[in-house]
Design goal:
- This protein has 15 helices and 25 strands.
- The chain is α/β, with parallel strands linked by helices.
- The strands form 5 sheets. Strands 13, 15, 16, 18, 19, 20, 21, 22, 23, 24 and 25 form an 11-stranded mixed sheet that branches.
- Helix 1 packs parallel to helix 2, helix 1 crosses helix 14 and helix 5 runs parallel beside helix 7.
């Protein structure tokens, strides 16, 4: 296929690229997906290559990035791997698992992946053509910055994809970080002339203050670059949308009371272990919306001291993150908290860490054949070559509440025959916590239920289960249960709020006109 094909007479395409990571590309793409849908267009999102540990399983058992899942919902579509044909999941500082059209094709170091990129780009082109043939308009998203001169030669996600799609490009800058105009001008300077021709203008994101004070800068940008600012989107902490990846979580910007100093701001304090290879950290989003919950990240033992719940989230490298827990003293703090009766919850990789041992006979994560877990559940995990990717519905047996979600993991976890053989007295016998309709076990809980784990990502999204679980914690603290669902987890209203916000502050009509709509 011709990498430089133009889209004359083809499907209209609008693309959001940024001056840096986390500038707001994903959010603006979601906003325009919702706006175009509201305006009667068949719109679909697309990102050729995504690097993220926050992934999702489609209805047909394929894996894709969560950002395009949110954008698909904004467009009123079921998530489809064609929307994110290449997904990179970093498993170490130098290597990533490469997923193409929803399936792993291997773990590659940087040089290996650069050599593989032409093949990946062909897959992305085929996916784009298929998606575009079914749509009135495509909203594309770039990655990082299009001006990374060390990456431009083998780019498949920014300007190379924009040229292939014939897309009009909007450059997005995060004005809250400072230096946004220098970043925009510098980006334009580093683009090739044919790439600059694709740029329709700029959007400034996360602005605080009086936007009229920026007017002189608009005039300068027009004179210097030939493009103007198409909008200034105000900073908002109340969007209520999932984050694309762990950047905001790790910088302390996760929802609710993310700062350590604010951990006592509600009745129930939930500490999320900030694992180095944390994945699918959005499992806590539904909890963050509850008015009686404060949820915050924890990286030191002291930050676990006042928690009512310690949540061990998913991990792309369970063995390495287990080592980190041991090295930092977090492991000892978790087991000590369990002995005090603090609730300990593990999801996916976190569930595996709660067990007695983790075996890795194929060396998927390390050269070690096995490692000792935290010993809080009498279960053993064996890593397997095949990756489990499946949507699931199950029942929480203690409450009989239904839950839904998805599994993304290597390996299987089973209850040991002699549950008394674990080293920690707090372990004790365990029982099945979650079971599917066909009898599959998705998690175990200790006697008394204060330590439990599951492979089910999204387990807390179920409103009734989440409220029942939180009320159990309230009763334990001698607080009256709330019982009614006061914070339904649903991002549809948030997507509508986002669309309204962007319509108010961005010249969307000129962008529609630029790509030939209306």
């Amino acid at each position: 296929m011709d990498q430089n094909r133009t889209n004359q007479g083809g499907t209209p395409a609008l693309m959001f690229q940024g001056t840096c990571s986390n500038a707001g590309k994903s959010v603006l793409a979601a906003a325009f997906c919702r706006m175009l849908r509201q305006d009667g267009f068949r719109v679909a999102p697309f990102k050729a290559q995504n690097m993220s540990l926050n992934s999702f399983v489609t209805a047909d058992g394929l894996e894709m990035g969560r950002a395009q899942v949110t954008q698909a919902q904004a467009a009123g579509l079921e998530p489809d791997v064609r929307m994110n044909p290449v997904l990179l999941k970093p498993s170490s500082d130098v290597g990533s698992q490469v997923i193409v059209m929803g399936k792993p094709v291997g773990t590659m170091r940087v040089g290996e992946y650069v050599r593989y990129k032409p093949t990946a780009f062909q897959a992305a082109q085929r996916a784009y053509d298929s998606l575009a043939a079914e749509s009135d308009v495509i909203v594309l998203e770039g990655a990082g910055s299009p001006a990374e001169i060390n990456l431009k030669a083998h780019d498949i996600v920014n300007m190379a994809m924009a040229q292939y799609a014939g897309a009009a490009v909007v450059l997005v800058g995060d004005i809250d970080r400072g230096g946004v105009f220098a970043s925009l001008v510098g980006t334009m300077e580093l683009l090739e002339p044919e790439e600059r021709e694709l740029v329709a203008g700029y959007v400034l994101n996360k602005f605080r203050g009086d936007a009229s004070l920026l007017t002189p800068a608009y005039e300068f940008m027009q004179q210097r670059t030939g493009r103007t600012v198409l909008g200034v989107v105000p900073h908002s902490d109340a969007l209520g949308l999932p984050e694309e990846d762990s950047v905001s979580f790790k910088s302390g910007l996760a929802p609710a009371c993310a700062r350590f100093a604010d951990r006592k701001c509600a009745d129930i304090a939930i500490a999320v272990a900030d694992l180095p290879h944390i994945s699918n950290f959005t499992d806590g989003d539904a909890l963050a919306g509850e008015p009686d919950v404060s949820i915050y990240r924890a990286r030191t033992p002291d930050e676990l001291a006042d928690a009512d719940v310690i949540l061990l989230p998913g991990s792309k490298n369970t063995l390495a993150d287990l080592d980190w827990l041991q090295a930092t003293g977090m492991a000892g703090a978790v087991t000590a908290a369990a002995a005090r009766g603090v609730e300990i919850v593990g999801i996916c990789g976190g569930f595996q860490m709660l067990g007695a041992t983790i075996a890795d006979p194929h060396g998927l994560e390390s050269d070690r054949l096995s490692a000792r877990g935290l010993g809080l559940l009498p279960v053993h995990t064996t890593m397997g070559r095949d990756k489990t990717l499946v949507r699931q519905s199950a029942v929480h047996l203690d409450t009989e509440e239904p839950v839904t979600g998805y599994e993304i993991h290597h390996g299987a976890t089973a209850l040991e025959n002699d549950s008394a053989s674990t080293d920690h007295e707090s372990s004790g016998p365990a029982h099945t916590a979650f079971r599917t309709e066909d009898g599959a076990v998705l998690g175990y809980a200790s006697r008394g239920g204060r330590v439990w784990g599951t492979y089910l990502h999204g387990v807390f999204d179920a409103d009734a289960f989440r409220r029942r679980w939180l009320d159990t914690l309230r009763t334990r603290k001698n607080l009256a249960p709330i019982r009614t669902i006061v914070a339904p987890y649903d991002i549809e209203p948030a997507l509508d709020r986002l669309a309204d916000l962007v319509r108010q502050h961005v010249d969307w009509r000129s962008l529609y006109h630029r790509i030939g709509l209306r």
